[in-house]
Each structure stands twice: as C-alpha cells, then as structure tokens.
Amino acid sequence: MSSQLFHRIYEIVLRIPKGKVATYGQIARLAGNNRAARTVGWVLHALPDESPAPWHRVINRSGRSSFPEAAKRSLQRALLEQEGVVFDENGVVDLAVFQWDGAES
DNA sequence: GCATTGACTCTAG
DNA sequence: CCTAGAGCCAATG
Fold first, then answer.
1. Looking at strand B, which nucleotides approach a protein CB closer than 7 A?
2. Which of chain C's bases lie under 7 Å from a protein CB?
3. CB within 7 A of strand B: which residues qualify?
4. Is residue A89 domain-resident?
5. Residue A104 domain-assigned?
6. Is-above-0.70 flag for pTM?
7. Which nucleotide is the nearest neighbour of A24, by CA and C1'?
C-alpha cells in the first residue's frame, strides 16, 4: 500500500496516552519520516467521522493548535483540559510536561 | 500527470 | 519576533 504512512500515523495517534499531547513532527518521526509533518496534518484533517483518533492531542511544535478555525481550537483545548492538560494564559501547552514520550501507554 | 495547497518543522538571517 | 527557503506526503484542480 502506498498509503501505509497514513496507517502508521493513524496508529501512532491512537497510541497517544490520555493526558498527553504529541507534535506533528514527533509523530512524523515515529512514523519514519522526520519531516513529513505536513502529511500528519493531512491525515488528521482528512480523518473520517468514525475515526477514534484523538486529533485534539496532536498540536504543533509551539504547543499550540494550528486550526484555521478558532472554534476547533477551543474545542481541542476543552478536550485536553478534560484529560488533565493545562494551558497557560496564551493558550499554549507546556510540552516539557505534557508532550508524549512516544514509548509507553 | 503537472501545479498548487495544506491542521508542519527546521535552519538561517 | 518575523521572513524566506527547503523538505516531505497526499489530495485536489
């Protein structure tokens, strides 16, 4: 399959433990392409509705979501806060604390 | 099949 | 902090 990268990224996203977040670049690295962050973004934006993938746990390297719509960002923030992730006054997640190690669950 | 775009990231200035 | 260029992958026109 040529879309194996899609599947790989998908599995990695599903592996993100609750209360943690991962960056596009991190997922891309785990998927085998350290710079395919754009593809990760594409996978998440193209996820079907029935996808259990926690897209809200995926953020950019700044610890902030890059949604074109503020509504989704608010939703993502709410979901993460429900899982115990804290946002600062700028709406940024402390990656030093909440970024997924990528090695456990 | 080529060109453009996109929920990205890195390096350099 | 901001801009610019390069790299990667798939969708879309």
1. 6-10
2. 7-11
3. A 23-25, 28, 35, 37-42, 44-45, 47, 55-56, 58, 60-62, 65-68, 76
4. yes
5. no
6. yes
7. B8
Question: Within a domain: residue A103?
Answer: no
Tokens of A80: 């993460």
CATH number of the CATH domain containing A57: 1.10.10.10
- CA of A36: nearest nucleotide by C1' is C8
How many folded domains does chain A comprise? 1
Closest of A17, A19, A32, A28 to residue A79, by C-alpha: A19
List Cα–Cα distances, A36 to A64, A74, A92, in angstroms.
18, 26, 23
A22, A85 Cβ separation under 8 angstroms: no
Domain of A93 in residue numbering reads as 4-98
Report the nucleotide nearest the CA of residue A33, measured to C1': C8
State the nearest residue by CA to the C1' of C8: A36
Residue A36 CB neighbour total at 10 angstroms: 19
Instruction: Write out chain A's pLDDT in tens, 105 residues.
Output: 557 888 999 999 999 999 999 999 999 999 988 889 999 999 998 888 788 999 999 999 999 999 888 889 999 999 999 999 999 988 999 999 999 987 755
